[in-house]
Design a protein that fits this description.
The chain is an all-alpha fold. It has eight helices and no strands. It is globular and about 50 Å long. The N and C termini lie far apart (40 Å).
């Protein structure tokens, strides 16, 4: 609730230092969960990953808000597949912040096919239990996300800034 309160206070925007800190924490967290998931995932996890990606593909062009939820589900499932009982709880505690930020990211619907491809590649690496490749793909996915998220936030800020006449 603290991060949620900070975001609500700023009307959905994060102070730049807090935003950068959140991104750093997410990188550490996501790389560790995917590293563990590559070692500990089960066949059931793989079935669930495939189902999420299939659903992403079905609604890619018609429902960006659903893609936001599915993206969270995939990353949450990675936390579950890590085998660490606390990681999914941490991920859930960030859900409002996560979906707020990824919702901004997915306003550029052109990124959706790219993200689905990253997800598909990531699940392939997890299926192969390839720790190195899983971490590499997750890092590339996160870097891609940060680049486009920062662009989306800048564009939103420019739309809200009154222009001098």
């Amino acid at each position: 609730p603290i991060l949620e309160s900070l975001i609500a206070y700023k009307n959905g925007a994060l102070e730049p230092g807090l935003f950068e800190s959140l991104l750093e924490m997410r990188t550490l967290f996501e790389l560790e969960t995917v590293r563990l998931a590559a070692k500990k995932r089960t066949e059931e996890h793989l079935r669930r990953f495939d189902a999420i990606i299939d659903e992403e593909q079905r609604c890619a062009e018609t429902d960006p808000s659903r893609i936001t939820g599915l993206d969270f589900e995939l990353h949450h499932l990675i936390a579950i597949a890590s085998g660490n009982l606390i990681y999914p709880l941490i991920m859930n505690s960030f859900r409002p912040v996560y979906t707020n930020l990824t919702g901004k990211f997915f306003t550029n619907t052109g990124v959706i096919p790219e993200v689905i491809n990253f997800h598909r590649e990531l699940v392939g690496a997890l299926a192969a239990r390839d720790v190195h490749e899983s971490v590499r793909i997750m890092k590339a996915l996160l870097d891609h996300g940060v680049r486009f998220l920062k662009r989306a936030i800048a564009a939103e800020k420019n739309r809200k800034t009154p222009r001098a006449v």
